[in-house]
Amino acid sequence: MRYCRCTHCLTRFDTTAKPAGNWGAILAAEGPTPVWATGLQQSGSAPSVDIVFVHGLSGDRHTTWSAPGGAFWPQWLADEFDHINVYLAGYDSSAFAGILLGSGASIQDLATTLADGLISRPRQADDIILVTHSLGGLIVKQMLRRCADSADSRFLGLAQKVRAVVFLGTPHQGAQLASAFDVILRPFKSTASRQLAYSGPDLLDLNNFFSNYAVREKIIVRPFYETEKTHGVHIVDRVTANPNVHGAEPIAVQANHIDICKPTSDQAPVYLSVCELLRSLPSRGRSLAITTSNAITETDTNASARPAARQLSTIPDVAHTIPTYPTVDCTPTTAIATPAGVTSDILEDFAYFTTVAPDDRRPLDKKLHDAGRSYQIKDATRRKERFAMALRRHIAQPSAVTRYTQLLGDVESRFARHVRRAISEGASLSQVDHAIQSNVLDPCVQQFSSQGSEITSALVDNALYYLAGNCHVSWDA
């Protein structure tokens, strides 16, 4: 037995059972509630880190993290670290099941509600660590997406505070993803769960966002997966638990899907890993400046260790307007992390192709406009970004990085040898397009496709526009 140490009550509760009566409804209606160190009703000093627990389906903010016998590890963290605040975030699990099954509110609604609850807390720290279980990880990823895309400076500020995310049995990807959802949702609507739309393109799109965002913002990601079956099914394995973030190696836990988030002692691997994360989290000493335009900029006292702050801007609809072009540098694609495990030659070529070339530094839309290809601007921009996303998504796979780098080299070489000559000789647009198709796209598809690992002309086309975006290729003389 333990006591709830939230600001609203000192109610005694049994950590081995679900709350009775309407207590679950009260939890769902509250914002994140703090867990104070034993004997205290508030933190004794200004916290430097907030650690927030977000549960999954069929759980709540207390029982999800409680092992039989009363072991409640959020309390252990509050007792062991005097520089942190521990919070328990909750929501209506059955409503979340309805969301995933296509009814009720949206997952975006839950994500926004969680974000608003975190923003509204008193005594907030500058850094946040999020600990999630199962599908609660999807809410956190969606919350980060909503915040990163928001025009509200409060939400942008919250996104920039997140330093680490711990995923305990969260299904991210893999061939078993649909079956994982089916088992998790079975207590709710087994028939509808087999038709779960969220295991399709929407989830893949969310995964792509998070893998890119985590690398770009240098968020520490700790994924864990269970080794034991739950009701005869292995719900989240090593492949499904992989968030596809460079450096985030899935860690095995000898537990099932229900117990993976319930350490039974302070020597349990999950608890020790989170403790190590708290101790090793580097200080970044930053301050956030809110501008009158509702945008947010970052002043970092440790600027040498972090990238420059992002500049928020709007992109004009190039399908309706042709912009004017002052003298500007070529706009590079979002920076991509350095891959590991590849040969020095590939690493050198990778750095070359993912860095803006020093000559002809016109932006992609300018190059196309000058070549009489303004009608391609919108599609070209999208294709360039799609290839950049593919690079970031496979950054932790040396074989994939090698293949993409070799493809970029072949596309650049073939374009320079065959297409540039046609352009310099005054070829028409259709003749240039024919040269690209016959001398670049088709040969690259044939060269880089193998049995069971085919590539498409679209991928080669995306690589071509990526090279143009980084100022390695142009269509005019």
Summing up helix and strand content along with how strands pair, one would put the structural category as alpha/beta
Helix content: 40-55%
Q: Report the sheet with the most strands, covering strand number, pairing sense and barrel closure.
A: 7 strands, mixed
Strand content: 5-15%
Q: Report the radius of gyration as a whole number of Å.
A: 25 Å
Structural overview:
This protein is α/β, with parallel strands linked by helices and 477 residues long. The chain contains 15 helices and 13 strands. The chain has helices spanning 23-29, 73-80, 93-100, 107-119, 136-149, 153-161, 177-193, 201-216, 269-280, 344-353, 364-370, 377-393, 398-424, 429-448, 457-469, and strands spanning 2-3, 12-13, 33-35, 49-54, 66-67, 71-72, 84-89, 127-133, 162-168, 220-226, 251-253, 286-290, 296-300. It has a seven-stranded mixed β-sheet with strand order 3-7-4-8-9-10-11, sandwiched between helices. Helix 5 (136-149) packs across helix 8 (201-216), helix 13 runs antiparallel to helix 14 and helix 14 (429-448) crosses helix 15 (457-469). The longest helix has 27 residues, at 398-424. The protein is elongated, with a radius of gyration of 25 Å. The protein starts with a strand and ends in an 8-residue tail after the last helix. 38% of the residues are buried. Residues 1-29, 189-199 and 285-334 have low confidence and may be disordered.
Structure in a nutshell:
Helices cover 42% and strands 12% of the residues.
Which labels suit this protein?
single chain, disordered N terminus, 7-stranded mixed β-sheet, alpha/beta, 42% helix, 477 residues, two-stranded antiparallel ribbon
